[in-house]
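Incident log, structure service

09:12 report received: a user says their structure output differs between two submissions of the same chain.
09:20 pulled the input from the user's history:
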Amino acid sequence: MEKSFRGHLYINKISFEVILNACFCFCQESSVAEVENEISRDILDISNTTTRIRQLQDIMENLNDEIHQKNGTISKIEGEIVKRNAVIERKQSTIDQYNKRIDQMKSKDGVCDEYSMRKLVYKV
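09:34 re-ran on a clean worker, output below:
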C-alpha cells in the first residue's frame, strides 16, 4: 500500500508541475496580451495625435493664407492712403498760394472784392 501511495504521490507531483507550468504559461500569455493591448492603445493614441496634428496644420495653412491675403489688402490700402495724402498736400499747397495772394491783395488795396477774387482764381 505504501508503494501505491507513493506512486500516487509521484503522479500527483507530476500533475502539480504540469498544472503549475500551465498556470505559468497562462500568466505569461496574459502578460503578453496585456502588453499587446497596451501597444495597441499606444498605436491608436499616436494615430489620433497624428491626425490632430494634420488637422491643425491644415487650419494653420488656411489662416496663413488668409493673413497673406489681408496683408495684400492692407498694402493696397496703404498705397491708396499715400496717393490721397499727396493729393491733399497739393491741394493744401494751392490753398496756401491763394491765401498768400489774398493777403497780398488786401495789403496792397486794403480791399478784396468779389471781382478780385474771381480774377485770382482764374489766374491759378
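09:41 both user submissions now match this output. Likely a transient worker issue. Closing.
09:42 reviewer note: Residues 86 and 92 are 10 Å apart (CA to CA). Helices lie at 2-109, 114-123.
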